[in-house]
């Protein structure tokens, strides 16, 4: 059973009990329907209360059932809501904590609703690429009015129950701390004999001149929804609440729901929803692994990354000390943090008071003794093993026992770094992405000796800092940068063979990337990749690269920071203008290496860049560097601007079909630089078995 039945005086109480959030899966629906029928058959029962056990009334339809026949097995959510609405005895929803999606739709099918303050009320289906499909688009406007209901449905944003007190959504919002169930049972007892039973479906939506409002809404939503079809369909469905009879509107809503649930965009969003949650689970680090307390932090290096990382701690209310070797560098780092907060205040995203509170949590020092008591220290100094060695030997000497020693290295061997200390079990990689105070991704690098409690603490910390933590094993570049290396290599070869930066960027941005590789290079600094390549020319001479990026750097064109990169820039303007100098350099380079430039299609550009990611992702998966394909997808969705509506590179490859991906790769393997296209054994295996990375 996943709903419990109890009789309390003359009131039957049905408690949804499907942890963690009382998702309305088949077993819960079946038990709830059985509860209603039992209450109807019992003459001693005058009224019914539906409530939820634990930390939710209900989080809605069970998303895990969407791809299974269970979703359509009777009693469906529609049937459950019908049974509730047709009940001849009054049904009261007792709402607390979370009342979302199908949960809110169920509550709207009840005759009355009593809520605790602080309950999050939402129809968040749009965030999963669908729309409320069990009457939400028809019933919510009938209790909240057209405008407020449309806002909630199109945005999916939760509204606190107390803010909706006084609307027809609630018959009562109880006082803070009062007993919800007792209040709901008292309410049900009071209305036990009241007839006729109020029904939301019988209410009308009155909105003068609704056509103009709906047209305005369509225009606004269309402009904001990008490649996602759901928001506009939400407007269509809500419009039906005004223009159609209730049952017709319900039917129309259903049709739109069925279209959306099959859409690739919705599948991608649902994949991302579960991928984000599963990423924090590590098979040999169970959920009850003890975690260390993180009440204070220190950062070594107050440069680009150190400052941003410190802001994350301050934003989470954790005091943080930055350590530098020179006062000048420290002052510069602290000033940058202050400036960043001031800019956020100017943009209206933070109050002055809050900014000051956060700034007050950040301090600076030149002395290791001042950071010795920190619970975690994150090193963010230059990317050179020698510098890391100096820092970690000092940290090992001064940090209190039990402190976590973390490195923000983006490419170096974490095991070597751990070996500089006498406590490798306390060493972990925390690889933030730039700008560290903005980007959601945190790659958590697990060294061969990293303690399980240290890993569990890093995962818990990522949640506290509002990051998406993804665990990576140790390899050059970890998950994200190791893959981007192959993508960048292809981008370079494309230039040699006939493309110009603008064409490559445009093609990839049309595919949905936030930014193409060359605009990205100009933003991040082309000198960073140059330094990495120089190291690789020595360490891995067998790996081939186009020389175009080196020639660019030799011209001093490091990107926006030098006012020129792959593109030209005007002072104070981030807009990229095609550069005659760079384009001429690229064409000349092709001639110098004897390559006849050809016209390259956008399809080829996208395939070469994206499949380069996929192929390397497959190796990373096979080597166990990533625990699962969906972790790789999360890295790319949250750290590299991969289009969300495509679900990440591995999910995208699954949708294309791995045999198709493999065929295309085989084609490129016959071309120039075919050595870059040796298919990953896992890709070959899965394609042969008719499987996907995620299935
Ligand atoms: N179905 C199934 N599982 C769900 C779920 C749902 N609707 N909502 C959450 N879960 C699961 C999560 O997968 C996670 O599982 P795990 O512990 O195995 O990883 C667990 O519940 C806890 O989730 P969170 O980590 O997100 O917990 P939080 O406390 O941070 O948040 C929440 C809880 C606000 C409910 C959040 O999970 C959420 O936003 N869920 C999605 C709600 C939603 O979109 N509902 C609409 C569903 S679609 C629908 O109802 C269709 C209908 O209109 C026909
Ligand atoms: P940066 O050059 O901006 O800052 C490094 C800072 O460390 C400087 O302020 C320098 O004075 C200080 N420093 C150097 N040696 C020190 C020492 N011994 N003790 C204390 N401070 C010292 O470098 P950035 O970009 O912040 O990179 C730092 C680390 O973060 C590197 O490992 C880099 O690979 C990594 N990283 C960088 C990203 C980026 O986009 N810049 C992204 C992710 C990781």
Automatic annotation (TrEMBL):
Signal peptide start-end: none
SUPFAM superfamilies: 6-phosphogluconate dehydrogenase C-terminal domain-like, ClpP/crotonase, NAD(P)-binding Rossmann-fold domains
Catalysed reactions, as listed in the record: a (3S)-3-hydroxyacyl-CoA + NAD(+) = a 3-oxoacyl-CoA + NADH + H(+)
UniProt entry keywords in alphabetical sequence: Fatty acid metabolism, Isomerase, Lipid degradation, Lipid metabolism, Lyase, Multifunctional enzyme, NAD, Oxidoreductase, Peroxisome
Pathway: Lipid metabolism; fatty acid beta-oxidation
Record Pfam families: 3HCDH (PF00725), 3HCDH_N (PF02737), ECH_1 (PF00378)
Subcellular location: Peroxisome
Domain 3-hydroxyacyl-CoA dehydrogenase C-terminal: 477-569, 605-690
Domain 3-hydroxyacyl-CoA dehydrogenase NAD binding: 297-472
Name recorded for this polypeptide: 3-hydroxyacyl-CoA dehydrogenase NAD-binding domain-containing protein
């Amino acid at each position: 059973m996943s709903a419990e039945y109890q009789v309390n005086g003359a009131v039957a109480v049905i408690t949804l009990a499907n942890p963690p959030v009382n998702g309305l899966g088949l077993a819960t629906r079946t038990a709830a329907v059985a509860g209603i029928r039992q209450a109807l058959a019992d003459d001693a029962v005058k009224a019914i209360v539906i409530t939820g056990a634990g930390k939710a009334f209900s989080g809605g339809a069970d998303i895990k059932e969407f791809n299974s026949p269970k979703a359509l097995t009777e009693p469906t959510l529609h049937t459950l809501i019908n049974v509730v609405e047709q009940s001849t005895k009054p049904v009261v929803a007792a709402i607390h904590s979370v009342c979302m999606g199908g949960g809110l739709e169920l509550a709207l099918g009840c005759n009355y609703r009593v809520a605790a303050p602080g309950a999050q009320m939402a129809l968040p289906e749009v965030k999963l690429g669908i729309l409320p499909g069990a009457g939400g688009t028809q019933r919510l406007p009938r209790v909240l009015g057209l405008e407020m209901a449309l806002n909630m449905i199109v945005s999916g944003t939760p509204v606190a129950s107390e803010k909706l007190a006084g609307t027809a959504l609630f018959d009562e919002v109880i006082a803070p701390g009062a007993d919800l169930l007792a209040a709901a049972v008292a309410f049900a007892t009071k209305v036990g004999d009241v007839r006729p039973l109020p029904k939301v479906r019988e209410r009308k939506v009155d909105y003068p001149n609704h056509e103009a409002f709906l047209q305005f809404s369509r225009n606004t939503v269309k402009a904001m929804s990008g490649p996602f079809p759901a928001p506009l369909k939400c407007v269509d469905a809500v419009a039906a609440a005004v223009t159609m009879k209730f049952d017709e509107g319900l039917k129309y809503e259903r049709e739109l729901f069925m279209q959306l649930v099959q859409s690739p965009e919705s599948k991608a969003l649902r994949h991302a929803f579960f991928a984000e949650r599963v990423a924090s689970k590590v098979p040999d680090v169970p959920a009850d692994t003890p975690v260390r307390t993180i009440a204070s932090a220190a950062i070594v290096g107050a440069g680009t990354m150190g400052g941003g990382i410190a802001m994350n701690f301050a934003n989470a209310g954790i005091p943080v000390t930055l350590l530098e070797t020179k006062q000048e560098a420290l002052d510069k780092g602290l000033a940058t943090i202050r400036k960043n907060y001031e800019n956020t205040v100017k943009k209206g995203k933070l109050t002055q008071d809050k900014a000051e509170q956060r700034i007050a949590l950040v301090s600076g020092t030149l002395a290791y003794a001042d950071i010795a008591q920190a619970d975690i220290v994150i090193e963010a100094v230059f990317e050179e093993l020698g510098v890391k060695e100096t820092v970690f030997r000092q940290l090992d000497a001064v940090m209190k026992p039990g402190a976590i020693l973390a490195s923000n290295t983006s490419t170096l061997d974490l095991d070597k770094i751990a070996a500089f200390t006498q406590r490798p079990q306390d060493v972990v990689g925390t690889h933030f992405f730039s700008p560290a105070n903005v980007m959601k991704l945190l790659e958590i690098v697990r060294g061969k000796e990293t303690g399980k409690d240290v890993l569990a603490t890093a995962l818990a910390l990522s949640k506290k800092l509002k990051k998406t933590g993804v665990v990576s094993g140790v390899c050059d570049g970890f998950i994200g940068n190791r893959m981007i290396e192959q993508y960048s290599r292809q981008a370079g070869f494309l230039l040699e063979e006939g493309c110009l930066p603008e064409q490559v960027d445009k093609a990839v941005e049309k595919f949905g990337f936030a930014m193409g590789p060359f605009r990205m290079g100009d933003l991040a600094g082309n000198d960073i990749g140059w330094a990495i390549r120089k190291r690789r020319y020595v360490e891995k001479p067998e790996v081939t690269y186009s020389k175009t990026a080196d020639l660019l750097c030799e011209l001093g064109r490091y990107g926006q920071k030098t006012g020129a990169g792959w593109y030209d820039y005007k002072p104070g303007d981030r807009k990229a203008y095609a550069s005659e100098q760079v384009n001429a350099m690229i064409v000349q380079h092709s001639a110098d290496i004897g390559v006849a430039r050809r016209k390259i299609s956008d399809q080829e550009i996208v395939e070469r860049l994206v499949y380069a990611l996929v192929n390397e992702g497959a190796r990373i998966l096979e080597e166990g560097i990533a625990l699962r394909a969906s972790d790789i997808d999360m890295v790319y969705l949250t750290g590299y601007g991969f289009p969300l509506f495509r679900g990440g590179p591995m999910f995208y490859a699954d949708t294309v079909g791995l045999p198709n991906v493999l065929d295309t790769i085989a084609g490129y393997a016959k071309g120039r630089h075919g050595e870059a296209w040796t298919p990953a054994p896992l890709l070959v295996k899965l394609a042969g078995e008719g499987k996907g990375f995620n299935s």
